[in-house]
Amino acid sequence: MEQSQQEVQNYQEDGINLRELVFSLMERKFFIIGLTAFLTILAIQYARTLVPIYQATSSFTSPSTISMTTINKLDLTTRTKDSIFSEFLTLLSSKDLQKLAFIKGDFLNLFNSDNRAIDDTGEFISKVTSSIRVNSPNLTSEEKSLGFLTELPYTVSIEGVNAVAISEYLNALVDMANAKTITGLIELNEINISNRIDEISLERDLLIEQAKKDRFSTIERIKEEDGQKIRQINGQIDRTRYMEKENRLNQIVVLIEAAKLAKSLGIIENNFKLIKGDGASSDLTIAIGENKDLPEWYLYGEKALLQRVELLQNRTSDDPFIPELVTLNSQLNKAQNNNLLITLETRQDDSPFIDEIVKLDIEKIKLKSRTVFMNGVNAMQLSQISMPPEKPIKPNKRRIVLLAFIASFMMSIFLALIIETFKPNEKAPTA
Fold first, then answer.
1. SS3 string of the chain?
2. Which of 255, 309, 389, 421 is deepest in the core (most CB within 10 A)?
3. Is 275 left (phi over 0), alpha (psi -120 to 50) or beta?
């Protein structure tokens, strides 16, 4: 029973203390309202002085199939959409390109509209471009495994106090990165073509040099073969002449013997008068033993035989009496005046006789005449152009004022309670 009365007494005391607290705050309501209002007004004035920061964004995806078809017509190694798009993103993130776009677009005046003195232009540009961010699509690992989801757009953003300036600069930066990527592909194509033309020229020179060496080798081979033929033919001519000379000397001995025989037999003159005048037969025979031709000593006689000996002895050359020399001299002349050898020695240019050079020349002409029109070709597909933002992203003035209001209200209550604590004890008013 006593415990129950104690609990009722404690509850009554807590209710009295809470009423006293509320009464004390009500007594200082003007202090609480005034302090809260004062600090809130200060927060509003502070928020008004803050410079708004805007954010401009632009989005894009990988290049289109049409652009890739045109790009693959260039004399490049096989390029993919991902590789070209990656080059574009790399250029877009390049600080050097960001600075170049700023300078070429003459954005210094636009970002410094109040014409403030700028001590370091490079530092000013770096400060403006420091907020540029290239953002990839937020994909989970499962979404990345699905190829079509990779076509979600990438974004590039920049922050600044001038909404129009950052928007225009961002568009200029995207355009320049795209143009630089395509220009890089064109320059790479020209370098590859130039390198290939140099390779063709080198291959052509090597082929001509090799053909020249082969021609010289052929000339030497023909000369060696012809030299061997000439030596063989000259040998045959010498042997033929020697044999003819030996035959002539042998014939002289035979005729001398026949002349001696004719003299011993008293046959001085020839016996052609024995031939019948009617020419019935030109084969004179003598019927002594077996049928035989008339011997020269009998037919010609000593005088004619000695005359023949003298002619044979006085002969200076046997060549007219060697029929084989005509053929041998013809072969010798052919070997000494080889038309193929003369043609090869007088040739000034071997290129018309090299099939590979014709192919190389055709390829070179095609490379020089190759023209790929890159109009309308892009390294990306622009999904959204950057437009001047209407609302700043920071500071959030409403949030600042709201937080200031809440904080000042709570602080004023806290101060009121502290004042109440240090006030002299007075009897609280009764209900």
1. CHHHHHHHHHHHHHHHHHHHHHHHHHHCHHHHHHHHHHHHHHHHHHHHHCCCEEEEEEEEECCCHHHHHHHCCCCCCCCCHHHHHHHHHHHHCCHHHHHHHHHHCCCHHHHCCCCCCCCCHHHHHHHHHCCCEEECCCCCHHHHCCHHHHHCCEEEEEEECCHHHHHHHHHHHHHHHHHHHHHHHHHHHHHHHHHHHHHHHHHHHHHHHHHHHHHHHHHHHHHHHHHHHHHHHHHHHHHHHHHHHHHHHHHHHHHHHHHHHHHHCCCCCCCHHHCCCCCCCCCCEEEECEEEECCHHHHCHHHHHHHHHHHHHHCCCCHHHCCHHHHHHHHHHHHHCCHHHHHHHHCCCCHHHCHHHHHHHHHHHHHHHCCCCCCCCCCCEEEECCCCCCCCCECCHHHHHHHHHHHHHHHHHHHHHHHHHCCCCCCCCCC
2. 255
3. beta
pTM comes to: 0.62
In the chain, the largest separation of any two C-alpha atoms, in whole Å, equals 207
Residue-wise pLDDT for 21-47, tens only, equals 777 777 777 877 888 888 888 888 877
Q: Which long-range contacts (CB under 8 A, 24 or more apart) does 25-28 make?
A: 25/413, 25/416, 25/417, 25/420, 28/416, 28/419, 28/420
pLDDT given at position 303: 86
